[in-house]
Amino acid sequence: MPRKTAARTARLASIPLGVAGRAVGGWGKRLAGQSADEVSAELSARTAEQLFAVLGQLKGGAMKFGQALSVFEAAVPDEMAEPYREALTKLQSAAPPMTKAATHRVLAQQLGRGWADRFADFDDVPAAAASIGQVHKATWHDGRVVAVKVQYPGADEALLSDLRQLQRFSRLFQPFVPGLEVKPLLRELSDRMTEELDYRAEADNQRAFAKAFDGDDNVLVPKVVASAPKVTVTEWVDGKPLARIIRDGGKAERDHAGRLLCEFHFSSPARAGLLHSDPHPGNFMITPDGRLCVIDFGAVARLPDGLPRPLGMMTRLSLDGNSDRLLRLMRDEGFVRPGMKIEAEDVLSYLAPFAEPAAVEKFHFTRRWMQRQAERVGDLRGQDFKTGRSLNLPPQYLLIQRVTAGATGILCQLDAEVGMREIISRWQPGFADLD
């Protein structure tokens, strides 16, 4: 991992410079007679290729940002989406690996000089790589097959440096995620990065989830075998990555994966007092026996009392069309700034489409549905844009909102049909039992 701030900044700066250079080149090609559509398609493909290369090679905060963006690609208009979709999806599970020597140094520092004696077998070729670490398949000394996650040297320096620099270029990334503001996403990622760097804390989170879902018919959380500040050893689980199901899964398989994802998202705060807060397809897979396997617990929201009741009440009031009570509740909870003049019907019009999945017995999540929501709230001339600018997202709801939006993005990528109303009624306080 490149560690020096100057070197990382130079690579990140190459993204906007590359875009500008390709734009000039494209203008020249149009003068030479090439069609606008051909030039646009070529520019999009080359920009996407560079985006993946830079964010993936840097790993750290750059790759973490790319993974966060990847779940929102469903909102990108179809005419420009495909190149970015492919590039951003790669960031969910791919990155250049560490050398064998570097991996062994980290293992020796974290597990002791005799670290190899703790394993019956250790595969030096990483099975997967992510933003701040890579995973190796190994056999523990007692015969258990395990996953060994090793943090990249210099990850701590790179993470915050990347995210600071990316904020300077945030406008460049806005077209990839219409309807989502990039700067607040970067700020929120920065706030949570220090948590993800401590693998001991992640191991504690995973133990809590594993205990809560132990023996569950629908969800499998691998048990932690050993942990250190920069290394974790957990049970190995085989399964089909969600990214592959998104790409070529059949309807029944996609619907099944979507239902399990929804059930996990809404039930975990009540069952574990925690919300898994890194929703991208690289962190989920379907096991051969049909369960959802969940990995990577570095980022969680602590919700000891479960999901906040006002969120369920807001969803239900939106469906019921009770605009006056909805506005009062939102004012009480801080979603409307004190003294802000806003019409109750405008608030209802803004929120009601987001509540559509809970309005019917089964809802079909599609890219087109997500694109319509992004277009609606992002239209500078529309009332929904003005209403959205008048609303406030209280800090205690920020992470929940981002995780829910990310999970929704995955559902739209899956093109899944899910019985959301039953799941929300069961697990979201305030929806079925509105006072």
TrEMBL record:
SUPFAM superfamilies per record: Protein kinase-like (PK-like)
The keyword ATP-binding appears for this protein: yes
Phylogenetic lineage: Bacteria, Bacillati, Actinomycetota, Actinomycetes, Pseudonocardiales
The name this protein goes by in its record: Predicted unusual protein kinase regulating ubiquinone biosynthesis, AarF/ABC1/UbiB family
Family: Belongs to the protein kinase superfamily. ADCK protein kinase family.
InterPro entries recorded: ABC1_dom (IPR004147), ADCK3_dom (IPR034646), Atypical_kinase_ADCK (IPR051409), Kinase-like_dom_sf (IPR011009)
GO molecular function ontology, one term from the record: ATP binding
Domain of life, source organism: Bacteria
Species whose genome carries this gene: Actinokineospora alba
Coiled-coil portions: none
Keyword annotations of the record: ATP-binding, Kinase, Nucleotide-binding, Transferase, Ubiquinone
One Pfam family this sequence matches: ABC1
Domain ABC1 atypical kinase-like: 90-306
